[in-house]
Amino acid sequence: MIYAYLVIMTLIGSFAALFLKKASGSKNIKALISNINLYISGGLYFLSGCINIYILRFLPYSVVFPMTSITYIWIMVISYFVLKERISIKKIIGTALILIGVVTLARG
Q1: Structural domain boundaries of the chain?
Q2: Which of 35, 40, 70, 108 is 20 to 30 A removed from 98 (C-alpha atoms)?
Q3: For 35-75, how does the pLDDT look when each residue is reduced to its tens digit (9 = 90+)?
Q4: Residue 34 carries which DSSP code?
Q5: How many whole angstroms separate alpha carbon 38 and alpha carbon 41?
Q6: Do residues 23 and 41 make contact, with C-beta atoms less than 8 angstroms apart?
Q7: What is the CB-side half-sphere exposure of residue 73 using CA atoms within 13 A?
Q8: Is the distance from CB of 45 to CB of 16 less than 8 angstroms?
Q9: Given its phi and psi angles, is residue 41 left (phi above 0), alpha (psi -120 to 50 degrees) or beta?
């Protein structure tokens, strides 16, 4: 069950990054400060961090931190479906290698 929390944590962190990307379109610092996406991003990062703290009670740091690389997989999926970015074969191979590493860590 703790690994499910880890996956949820990475998904939340990925959506936090999406909202940060949306906030980055602000024209100046005043527009950035009034951009709701900045605050949504911060709230999601905070929630993800709290889940991370909870997970660290049960799993070693040497496992949890590398497994947060699952975030890269979510980012690729979100960037494709939400931001309409192109996904190259190199990105797919890189993401597959990340997934192999995560599975290896989870079983070790």
Answers
A1: 2-107
A2: 40
A3: 999 999 999 999 999 999 999 999 999 889 888 988 988 99
A4: T
A5: 5
A6: yes
A7: 18
A8: yes
A9: alpha
**The tokens of 64 are what?**
């949890």
Q: What's 105's DSSP letter?
A: H
Which of the 8 DSSP states describes residue 97?
Answer: H
Where b means 16+ CB within 10 Å and e means fewer, 11-47 reads: bbbbbbbbbbbbbeeeeeeeeeeebebbebbeebbeb
Give pLDDT tens digits for 44-53. Answer: 999 999 999 9
What is the signed CA dihedral for 26, 29, 35, 41, rounded to 10 degrees? 90
Hey, what are 4's tokens? 């499910």
- For the record, the structure tokens of 73 come out as 């997989």
Tokens of 25: 């379109």
The span from the CA of 30 to the CA of 40, in Å, is 17
Residue 57: HSE in the Cβ half-sphere, 13 Å Cα cutoff: 7
